[in-house]
Structures are given as structure tokens and as C-alpha cells.
Design goal:
The complex is a heterodimer of chains A (95) and B (399).
Chain A (H helix, E strand, L loop, with lengths): L2 H5 L2 H13 L1 E3 H8 L3 H13 L3 E6 L2 E6 L4 H23 L1
Antiparallel strand pairs in A: 1-3, 2-3
Helix pairs in contact in A: 2-3, 2-4, 3-4
Chain B lengths: L25 H10 L1 H5 L7 E6 L5 H18 L4 E7 L7 H12 L10 H14 L3 E7 L2 H7 L2 H8 L11 E7 L10 H7 L3 E4 L4 H15 L7 H13 L4 H18 L6 H10 L3 H8 L3 H16 L4 E3 H15 L6 H14 L3 E4 L9 E4 L5 H15 L8
Parallel strand pairs in B: 1-4, 1-5, 2-3, 3-4
Antiparallel strand pairs in B: 6-8, 7-8
Helix pairs in contact in B: 1-3, 4-5, 7-8, 9-10, 9-11, 10-11, 10-12, 11-12, 14-15, 14-17
The chains are: A alpha+beta (95), B alpha/beta (399).
The complex binds adenosine-5'-triphosphate (ATP) and magnesium ion.
Chain lengths: 95, 399
């Protein structure tokens, strides 16, 4: 999958950020926190999963998605997000 | 700690503090380890169920917590994936669902809060254990509350879950904590028989044992030389009178220390302990009362008020009910029915907040008398008023 596919959507980046911070969540909660509707969240999750950035686990009817700690791309994205956060907070201090 | 206090570190006297060392529970600690030997030696070959029983403040909770720490440490050294989870049933409102949810959240903090049954949660838990090749010891603390709330079903399911998975490894073991073994009679016969093979009884502490517990705690909680020998003895004596309750003795010391500080004194005197004993409305009870459902609080408030209107040592259930109705009116709530109140009364009795006893047989009709053994009605009312004000109505009320 090409990188544009992942980063071309606010929703997907949002989900990645949430999972990167929290570790794992179910769809409804993810959707709520990302401000997405359930169906949209589901589509995004599928794409992120195909890209190998997240994994999921099923328990009966419950599905839990989690950030894929074993994926190098995922790890780098998390790093990027952290750096981004830090630099941003630095910016606001300078203002 | 501030200058001029007798305390070195007050948090060491907190009810939730777990001391690094246990006094006088060595035999029971070893026994518990013995029961779980196989979890270390041959993990997965069998499961274990142990009951721990003893009166209030005899160290049931602290003993199991110590055991949990020590066994997980040992398992770690042997590269066995063993977890220990301690759940207080009462703090989870005696709900099997909430208890299981707490256990599942230990492994998956992101697990959703609703949308499935207790059954599914139990299956989920077993799946997690299988997936992660993990063994688990659950301590169900204050199990009374679960049995009272949901009867024998949860324990039945918990004790059967392993049997329905014949081929796989045995993963789930249980430690059940009960103040009174008589609660076992509420379970069905087969569950009872799987549970009651291994019972560890914690006898009430004697005065000298309490002294040792206190002295050990004083070392870390109070500044050196601020708690003289006589003070410790008195607190231990009073603790022994309260059924050998270590929590009570520790709390007495804490309060006595508070009085000392308030006076600007340098030493905690026996007089401070006496004063503490007079005013103690144990923090333990406060904790128990604060987790009661809204209407149970109202009922208790009714009782507390009624006691202030009478000089008698008891009130009748009829009086309690009447008083509760008045309280309900004041709080603008619809009063619960008679059968419900009867249940409340039983629960409050179990908690030890009130005492219910049949009236002397020669009196007319059969009625139950309610006593308020250890708490001053005024204090109880004050406490409840505060709680009711701050919490408001709890909508996840019981049935
Ligand atoms: N053997 C001991 N050594 C050191 N501290 C102890 C010992 N036994 C009890 N304590 C302390 O006394 C207090 C009460 O103990 P604990 O909470 O374990 O009692 P419990 O039997 O669980 O009471 P309850 O029936 O009310 O739940 C705690 O603060 C605990 O740390
Ligand atoms: Mg306890």
C-alpha cells in the first residue's frame, strides 16, 4: 500500500494517533474519540490493518484494535507523531 | 510531614496501605504457598480453589496480597506467565459482570464497557489466557457481596469453566475470602464441594500479636519516640476487644496521633487513644457505607435518626421503616417496599453496620430488633448526610 493511502485521510491519522497513545480500543470507542461514525471508522480501520499499522483481536462479538508494536512503519509513525507534538508545544511557547 | 507532628509518614496508616512485612501469619502464608505449589512446579496441570476466612481485620486481604506478590515474583523467575488479580466484590457492587470486567481490563484496558454478558466475559477471559499462555489466580475478596447479590450462579460458573474445557491447560485458580463460612451454604452442593477442600482460617489476633503489628507499623508511620509503650498496649487491648481487629487498632493509633498533633503534643498518650476510641467511627465502615446504594444509604439514615430520638438500645424494624419513609419524603424519593428493606437490613447486618436480632420470645408477635453496636448515631447521620449530598442519586441502583 502506498503511503498516500494512509496519510490522505484526517480520520485515519486521527485513529492512528489515538491508538498510538492508548494502545488498544474497540470500534465504538475509537469512533467516539475520533469523532467519526461507526461505519467510517470501520473502513479506516480496515485500511490501517491492511497497511499493517494496526492489528485486531476478536472475543466473541467484541473486536479490539491495537497499535501494531511489531511493525516498523507503525513505530516510525508513532515517533513522528511524538516529535510533531513536542515541536508544536515548543512553537506555542515561543509565541 | 510538617514540623511539629508526631507522624513521620501518615500514609503508612492508611487503610489501603500494604505493609512490606506480615506479622504472625507465617503458617498461613506457607500453607497458601503449599496449595499453589503446582502453579509453579507444573503449571497448567491442575487448578486450585482456596477459601480464606476470619473475622473483620484479621489480615485476610493483606495476606492474599502478599501471597499474590510473592507468587508472581517466583513465577517470573521461572519464566511462567502467572498473573494474580485481587478483586473486591463489594467495591464492585457484588456484580459478577463488573468483577469480570475488572479482570478482563487487567489484560485489555481498552475492552468496551458494555454490549455483552457476564458469560461472554468469562469466555473472553479464558480465550485471553489461552492466547497469551497465561495462568491466573483470582482472589475474590469479600465474596459475601457477590453471593448475596447474585446467589450461587457466578461461583457455579467460575468453578465449572475449567471442566468444560477438557483438553486445554488448566488456567484459572481461585482464592475466596469470606468473613463467615456460613455463606457457603448459599451455594449449590457441587460448587460447595469444589470449594471447601482447602480452608485457611485466620484466628483473631491476640493482644500481643496486635502489639507486634502496631509496633512494626509505628516504625514507619511515627517519628521515633513519639509513641510510648503504654499507648501501644492500650490500642492493642482495644483492638483485641474488637474481635482482634488489626485495622481498628491501627486506626486508633492514627486518630490518637491526630489528637496529639492538634494539641501540639510531643507524645501520643493513652488518653489520646481513649479519646480516639470514643470517637472512632471506623474508616473501614465509612468506606463500606460510601459504597452502599442510594436507598440503602437513605434507609441507614432513617435508622440513624430514629436512634437519636430514643434512649433505648434497640429500635424495631417497623420504626426503622417508618423513619426511612420520612427520609424518602425529605429527599423527594419514592420509598422502596417492605421486602426490599428487609434485604437492606440483612445486607447492613452482614456489613456489621447494624445488628439485627429477633425480639425476646415473650413479647407479642415476632419482630426483629435493630441495634447500632459501634457507631454513634450522630456521627453516622453526619457521615451519611455528607455522602448523600456529595454523590446524589446513584442511577445504577440495585433492583
Ligand atoms: N499480620 C499482619 N501484619 C501486618 N499488618 C496487618 C496484619 N494483619 C492485618 N494487618 C493490617 O491490618 C489492617 C486490616 O487487615 P486486612 O484488611 O487484611 O483485614 P481483613 O481480614 O481483610 O478485614 P475485612 O474482613 O474487614 O476485609 C490492614 O491495614 C493490614 O495492613
Ligand atoms: Mg479485607
Amino acid at each position: 500500500m502506498i503511503i498516500e493511502e494512509v496519510f490522505s485521510s484526517r480520520g485515519r491519522v486521527r485513529i492512528l494517533r489515538i491508538l498510538s497513545e492508548i494502545g488498544e480500543l474497540n470500534i465504538s470507542e475509537l469512533a467516539r474519540r475520533a469523532g467519526l461514525n461507526y461505519a467510517t471508522a470501520k473502513v479506516h480501520l480496515q485500511i490501517l490493518k491492511d497497511a499493517g499499522l494496526i492489528t485486531h483481536k476478536s472475543f466473541g462479538r467484541i473486536r479490539i484494535f491495537r497499535f501494531n508494536e511489531d511493525n516498523r512503519k507503525a513505530i516510525m509513525i508513532r515517533k513522528l507523531m511524538e516529535v510533531w507534538e513536542q515541536e508544536n508545544s515548543g512553537d506555542s511557547k515561543e509565541v | 510531614m510538617s514540623y511539629g507532628s508526631v507522624f513521620r509518614d501518615e500514609t503508612k496508616l492508611d487503610i489501603n496501605y500494604t505493609p512490606p512485612e506480615l506479622q504472625h501469619r507465617n503458617i498461613q502464608f506457607k500453607l497458601l504457598n503449599e496449595y499453589f505449589r503446582h502453579a509453579i512446579m507444573t503449571p497448567g496441570k491442575m487448578t486450585q480453589r482456596v477459601i480464606i476466612t476470619g473475622k473483620i481485620g484479621t489480615g485476610k486481604t493483606v495476606l492474599t496480597q502478599h501471597f499474590g506478590r510473592s507468587i508472581t515474583r517466583e513465577a517470573q523467575q521461572r519464566h511462567i506467565n502467572l498473573h494474580y488479580i485481587h478483586v473486591n466484590c463489594r467495591q464492585n457492587k457484588g456484580s459478577f459482570f463488573l468483577i469480570l470486567q475488572k479482570i478482563v481490563a487487567h489484560f485489555h484496558p481498552g475492552f468496551p464497557k458494555r454490549g455483552y454478558s457476564a458469560e461472554e466475559l468469562l469466555q473472553t477471559l479464558m480465550q485471553i489466557l489461552d492466547d497469551q499462555n497465561t495462568y491466573l489466580i483470582i482472589t475474590l475478596d469479600e465474596l459475601e457481596s457477590l453471593i448475596q447479590n447474585e446467589g450461587s450462579e457466578p461461583m457455579y460458573k467460575l468453578s465449572r469453566i475449567e471442566e468444560t474445557r477438557l483438553k486445554e491447560s488448566r488456567r484459572l485458580s481461585l482464592i475466596c475470602i469470606l468473613r463467615e463460612l456460613s455463606w457457603l451454604s448459599k451455594l449449590d452442593a457441587s460448587t460447595r464441594s469444589t470449594l471447601q477442600n482447602n480452608i485457611i482460617q485466620l484466628d483473631s489476633y491476640t493482644k500481643t500479636q496486635l502489639q507486634d503489628i502496631l509496633n512494626d507499623r509505628i516504625k514507619s508511620a511515627f517519628k521515633q519516640g513519639t509513641v510510648p509503650f503504654e499507648t501501644v498496649i492500650l490500642a492493642a487491648e482495644l483492638g483485641e476487644e474488637e474481635d482482634g481487629n488489626a485495622r481498628y487498632a491501627i486506626e486508633l493509633l492514627w486518630r490518637a496521633g491526630k489528637y496529639t498533633d492538634a494539641e501540639g503534643g510531643k507524645e501520643v498518650a493513652p488518653e489520646h487513644v481513649r479519646r480516639a476510641a470514643g470517637s472512632v467511627y471506623s474508616t473501614m465502615r465509612k468506606d463500606e457505607i460510601s459504597t452502599l446504594d442510594y436507598h440503602k444509604k437513605l434507609f441507614l439514615l432513617g435508622i440513624a435518626r430514629r436512634f437519636q430520638q430514643t434512649r433505648s438500645a434497640h429500635i424495631t424494624t417497623g420504626e426503622a421503616e417508618e423513619s426511612y419513609k420520612i427520609v424518602c419524603e425529605e429527599f423527594d424519593k419514592k420509598a422502596r417496599g417492605h421486602t426490599q428493606l428487609w434485604k437492606y437490613m440483612k445486607e447492613l447486618t452482614t456489613l456489621g453496620v447494624i445488628k439485627a436480632e429477633p425480639s425476646p420470645s415473650n413479647s407479642v408477635g415476632k419482630t426483629t430488633l435493630i441495634g447500632l453496636p459501634r457507631i454513634a448515631a450522630v456521627d453516622l447521620e453526619k457521615e451519611l448526610n455528607n455522602m448523600l449530598k456529595s454523590t446524589g442519586e446513584d442511577t445504577s441502583d440495585d433492583n
